[in-house]
Write a structure and sequence with these properties.
Number of domains: 1
CATH superfamily: Electron Transport, Fmn-binding Protein, Chain A
Radius of gyration: 20 Å
CATH topology: Pnp Oxidase, Chain A
């Protein structure tokens, strides 16, 4: 396939319009509705989201991470604090999330600020993970250069021998809460007349706005 054939990959979206009157009063409630519908539609890993960060100098970076929880406060994910995203967030806590639910012609985009969860909350989640994932969190210096796959496996085996039953939570690993300032719900429509409805924080509540597609 060459670049000249890429325009032919476009699809025509059709569906019910996304209307202001049909949305919840706040973005977390609306996200919960759409997330349930994404799961009901059988999407693979509907909790997969793109997390975009930037360093203090403005160098951007993005990667896919799994959402591990959400509530009235915001959205939660876990990572190694020494990874690139962890270092970025230490320098610049502003972050963007994107849920790309293409099979159902929807996207959710979040902008907000990330803060670390308490060590107790991070440890509670860490201890709920499968044993292998807990060992891997210790073995991997996430985002660092490794000599080889074999060297990484050797480190994993060494740590599994040290903690054959119950590895403790690392102090360099934990969760972030993304507190949203904006949440946009995008739904594809025919002729690229897509619906884009954005909740924007306006104390004490939220303002709902329609954006041009």
């Amino acid at each position: 396939m060459d670049a000249t054939s890429l325009p032919g990959l476009r699809r025509s979206y059709e569906g019910e319009p996304l209307l202001e009157a049909n949305l919840a009063d706040d973005p977390i409630s609306q996200f919960s509705v759409w997330f349930e519908e994404a799961m009901d539609a059988g999407l693979p890993e509907p909790n997969a989201m793109v997390v975009a960060t930037a360093s203090a100098g403005g160098r951007p970076s993005a990667r896919t991470v799994l959402l591990k929880g959400y509530d009235d406060q915001g959205f939660v994910f876990f990572t190694n604090f020494e990874s690139r995203k962890g270092r970025d967030l230490a320098e610049n806590p502003r972050v963007s999330l994107l849920f790309p639910w293409h099979p159902i012609r929807r996207q959710v985009r979040v902008e907000g600020t990330a803060t670390r969860l308490s060590p107790e909350r991070s440890a509670a989640y860490f201890n709920s993970r499968p044993y292998g994932s807990r060992i891997a969190a210790w073995a991997s210096r996430q985002s660092a250069v490794v000599r080889s796959r074999e060297a990484l496996q050797e480190r994993y085996d060494e740590l599994a021998a040290r903690w054959p039953d119950d590895p403790p939570a690392p102090d360099f690993w934990g969760g972030f809460l993304v507190v949203p300032s904006e949440v946009e719900f995008w739904q594809g429509q025919i002729d690229r007349m897509h619906d884009r409805l954005r909740y924007r924080r306006s104390h004490p509540g939220w303002v709902l706005e329609r954006l041009a597609p």
